[in-house]
Amino acid sequence: MRIVNIVIVYNLDRSKVLMLLRQKDPYIGLYNFPGxxxxxxxxxxxxxxxxxxxETGIAPSQISLRHTMTFDYHFLNYSLAIAVGExxxxxxxxxxxxxxxxxxxxxxxxxxxxxxxxxxxxHILDVLNYSEFNF
Length: 135
Hints:
The chain is α+β, with helices and mostly antiparallel strands. It contains two helices and seven strands; from the N terminus they run E-E-E-E-H-E-E-E-H.
């Protein structure tokens, strides 16, 4: 099964998440979280740190990520691993290809005209609000 990841970066008071505006398919023109594919024998977290640094300029030394959940899409033969961390929203960012933006966590992430993920972003963020996910 192919494994891909997304990295959810909250600001310190968790009022915003860092997203990128997709410049290519899938989800061209929509906001999504940084992420990508696992390369070679990388662990899930190693791939998350690498993708985050490549797409945002946030170095592993600046953030602590936690692998919080994985969704398996058996019919599509892939898994989506999700890592989460927090960082000061004033940290300098360096976009690789996709423009970066801090977006309020009160946004309607089910809006398929604005956000990728087929409505799943809202579900993921709702689950991360459970007290068990005190990262």
